[in-house]
Amino acid sequence: MMSDETSRFDILFEPVRIGPVIAPNRFYQVPHCNGMGHRHPLAHAKMREVKAEGGWGVVCTEEVEIHPSSEFSPYIEGRLWDDGDIPALACMTEAVKRHGALAGIELAHTGLSAANLWSREIPLSPSGGPVRDYYPISTRAMDKADIADLRRWHRAAALRAKKAGFDIVYVYAGHDLGLPMHFLSRSLNSRTDEYGGSLENRARLLKELIEDTKDAVGDTCAVAVRLSIDQLLGPEGITAEGEGREVIALLAELPDLWDVCLASWSNDSMTARFAEEGFQEPYAQVVKALTSKPVVGVGRFTSPDAMVSQVRRGVLDLIGAARPSIADPFLPAKIREGRFDAIRECIGCNICVSGDTTLVPIRCTQNPTMGEEWRRGWHPERIPALGRTERVLILGAGPAGLEAARALAQRGCEVVLADAAAEAGGRAAKEARLPGLSTWKRVADHRLQAILPDPKVSLYLESRMEAEDVAGFDCDAVVVATGSTWRRDGMGRAARRGISGLERFALFTPDDVMAGRPPEGPVLVYDDDHYYMAGVLAELLAGRGLAVTYATPASVVSAFTDYTLEQAKIQARLIRLGVQVRCGVALADGRLGCVHGGPAAAVEAPNLLLVTARDPDDALYRALIALPDGRRLERIGDALAPGTIAAAVYSGHRLAREWDMPAEERFSFKRERVSLEGW
Ligand code: ADP
Ligand code: SF4
Asked: Which GO terms describe its molecular function (predicted)?
């Protein structure tokens, strides 16, 4: 029998009819990219299967190319050009349906957003003009024959999707990527025929594609539409109060399901720095008010109460999630079983997106098994027991140490975890106090929730350990997870041997600021790290009223964050805060000079905050190597090589997973090799 605590979430487990199919519950994994796609179909199928096993009632693909005239290279998405592509996707439907979930496919033609670098077909668009990215490639304005072709291709792809076993087939007008969205857009569509001009005309292609898809597969498959209801461009673009609402009203009852999203992708998948959980509620509400069809909406939902509230208040029918399903594929199962403390909450960092945008399989800060389900056989909830009890001392309770402790205890080890600080969490706890990063705390919280009640784990805070303390400690193995320290000499990518002339400044590093010793006057924040730290600190100090200059040798602010969809937002925020932004400049001898040449100008600020690189804190490790006591000694996380929090969690997890694996075997993972058919 369910307790009151769990029964209040019953509503989330009600089945929902979507056209001719029935979703077993309201948990809906919306389409999301993953860097696997057509290149790694088995890895892709397994990753999706784990979500179905974890209770997601609907599990969708990412964008799936329907034709060589819309080919997404260099990005790796799904592909369904001809019947030969069916088996790779059928792996996924079979795997997902094994667990009673519905499988959805996002058929996509992305018009001017696809440069067709691989197929070399001329890209198509409503009215011509260059492709979206900076490639020197123009699109071709579609004539009536092209539109007829497109409809035929889409219809054929829908039939193939049905053959592959999909239950839900999408017409994609999402983000600023789907071709029907390009037709809707006044700035991209200047046609004078029945596909241009009035909104009804601009929506004609979308309407025809929905009708075609229903006609082709609607007898057994639900037809879903993913539409960007707002481009967040104000009156220049489509808005929820304006044409977004009007399109929905026009087509309200035509599809079997509305999947609400925003354009562009960086607005739809905003990080925690820029949007709160549930931020898309007003947009879903607009759609829900205009249709009787089920509505799926997203908003980085991780709180079961927020989910129930959205359904009860009639904001949406299905809890859409990409990132929360990545961070915790077992989120629905945990809610159903009332295991709320076990939920691994997404932190909204978009490291998952960076897999796709750097053209490699997905990874996740919170879920180190994401992307490893098939190639390493990792399951997010299960790790085989070791079959023996070892006593392991872990030094450092940051993301790496905490995850190693959690996973080793799960395998049956007895773990003693010691940290010098008064609070567990290492950098995740410290950085969580910086603007926009409070969710980082969840990295520590999730692991603490697992280990604190576990009698096999003892956590000692305010316990700095030196080599002599370790020497006398009764254990079988020692794991060093002591983290890293920001450098004070300016060494980074631009100045591999450090920066000259630093003695003229009062010097600060992020460690000083986080330890409560920030600069108090005008400051130059020098970023040769290129991830979030320098931008966040510039924001913090400008917010305190300091005169802040941000300078970087890169051509944009926080360059790596382009991969996490944040770059433009960060740069705009700094400018709005009055930060003087200087890109493409390097610091030497107290002067900033253009990295491409020309005169350098003296820096006037007396304070310099260096955000360049970190050094591993590995002194303890080196001291322990020198102790010939025969115990196993390991080093993980930033103490091994400073990197992202995701890398530290992965490092801790991997150590535990591979604890009993011969060293040589640890390098290998299963690969999907190219077929040599045709040679
Ligand atoms: P990672 O990201 O690799 O987990 P962090 O820097 O987040 O690294 O965490 C390292 C943790 O190690 C910090 O909480 C720090 O207090 C702790 N630490 C560093 N040196 C020692 C030590 N000698 N004894 C115990 N704890 C230590
Ligand atoms: Fe969430 Fe970050 Fe994991 Fe993506 S990588 S799912 S944003 S925790």
From this structure: FMN binding; iron-sulfur cluster binding; metal ion binding; oxidoreductase activity
